[in-house]
Amino acid sequence: MRSKIGLIIGVLGLLFSCDSDLVFDEYKSVDGAWDKDDSIEFKIMPPDTLNPYNLFINLRNTNDYKYNNLFLIVEMNYPNGKIKKDTLEYRMTTPEGEFLGAGFTDVKENKLWYSQAEIFDESGEYIVKINHAMRETGDVNGIEKLEGIIDVGFRIERPKNGN
Q1: What average pLDDT does the segment 98-124 reach?
Q2: Structural domains in the chain?
Q3: DSSP letters for 57-104
Q4: What is the pTM for the complete model shown?
Q5: Contacting residues for 102 by C-beta, under 8 A, at least 6 apart
């Protein structure tokens, strides 16, 4: 029995130690379908104003997601009022239509690059807002309710080995 407990503690220790580069990681659930006007918002207090960090958007999707790509509008609001806004496209499937991402069930988790070696050069709270910008081909107005995305997350990591 003691060996099983020791093994469990060892495995848990390995799991937690593998993520030592983690600075911030938070998810927000999408209720049923992601409305095109609903921003997913994260409030961030960076640990310092000197070091670079890698930023990621994390998504969990189900088989209900019916597109091979995903367009997002990401807005970073700086403490002094400056706003950085990007429109980003991510591939969600292989050319054969299989979902990318990790997971053995019908839920796939995707870790998508947002910014590399980002320096939070202002002290204070940063706010990141994420909206989907999906449209059907030929449709200008966009998809009102995007189905298949169940969680949206934002993650900050220290670069590995000076990257």
Answers
A1: 93
A2: 22-162 (2.60.120)
A3: EEEEE-TT---SEEEEEEEEE-TTS-EEEEEEEEE-B-TTSPBPSB-S
A4: 0.84
A5: 108, 109, 110
